[in-house]
Prior knowledge:
By secondary structure, this protein is mainly alpha-helical. The chain is 74% helix and 1% strand. The chain has helices at 4-19, 30-33, 51-65, 69-81, 88-104, 108-119, 127-143, 147-160, 167-178, 182-198, 205-217, 221-234, 238-250, 254-266, 273-285, 289-301, 309-321, 325-338, 343-354, 358-371, 377-390, 394-411, 414-440, and strands at 21-22, 25-26.
Amino acid sequence: MKSLLHISSVLVTALLTLTLAVGGFAVPTVAEAAEEGQKPQKTRRVPSMSEAVYKKLAEGQEAIDAKDYVTAEQVMKNMLERSKRYNGNEIGQVYSMLGYVYFLKEDYRSAIDAYKKVVAQGEDIPEGLEQTTLYTLAQLSFVEGFYTDALKHMEEFISKATNPGPEPRIFMGQVYYQMKDYPAAINQMIAGIDLAKERGLTIKENWWQLLNFLYYEQENMPKTIETLEILVRDYPKRDYWIRLAGMYGQEGQEKKQLHTLQAAYAGDYLSKETDFTNLAGLLMQEEAPYKAAKVMEHGLDDDIIERSSKNLRALGQAWQLAQEVDKAIPVLEDAADLADDGRIYDQLAYVYLEADRYDDCVRSANGALDKGGIRKKQSTYFVRGLCLYNDDKLNDARGSFVSCRNESRRDEDDTNLRTCAQWITYIDREKDRLAQLAAAGQ
Length: 442
């Protein structure tokens, strides 16, 4: 005859599977802790249960099934009032059902007290009930913050179980984590993972997550990176890719940082603006402006990257450095329109000068001067003067070089002062030369 109370304890464990989680790490259950294919263990000879006790337990079970927990609790308490008549097995079964009722009522401390009385019956209860109760006690103690008790109960479970799986060690690692004893937690996590490897069992994602966190808290960066590499390989997600890239960067391994982000980009794991802009920035550092521009363009086209002046300017500069001037110009124009100052217009003036688009050069230089906020006005006047000169507008060019000279004098910028003065002299001589040629031709 299978004990109704043993079934109740198993139900407790099943319910705990659904309810227990700390910091995002699932608490293992006794079912997971039991290794399949265990060696048969010697059955403990325990006192038999009387028909009268069985009937009262069945009455309590019926009340539980009907969710009438008040009645179920009262049935168990009435039985305990005459417990002097019961043997150890019967007392253990009664307390097991009472603990289950307390659990269902979410009175976990009373459940703990009841389950302790189950274990206290020692050799009088079946091994299965004892082990299940010890595991449940460890879980409930964990939930209630009795971490030392949780460890004690789990250690006792391990000592009594036949071929326990890795989950009890993982559970103890979680307990030590809550106690902030990170070295002990690491030891338990490694023990659990090694056992899973030996037996060819699945190593769960949250085991690696916790171990990674513990290594990071211990500032063991090589092991932090190692566990992140495992998470990226076996459970590829954006968060793991980004953290791994960040760790490579923190450790001065910029090449690996770049390659990690490139792999994440190729796998379509990047989803935030900073993901794209960081990758583009690293590509620029590696003198790969074309690839950087394509990454920025992708992010902008998919509305992942905001069309801000800053981001558009970065894209425009990447295209410019990639010698894709025709692609750079419209992007920089949009960036300049959105900017609060004239610095991007100032940059555009240089781009237009190099492209021999002198009218656009002058327009951009004027835009820079109008918006203000540029670092050196004399440099902007100088570029505008060159564009006007190349467009055969000598008088306007001279006026721009005069402004350059005046600004340079105010800033004590001897280099630009000398250069702009030379251009003024050159234009004056050119005008005289042209005037003489005109007079000679009359």
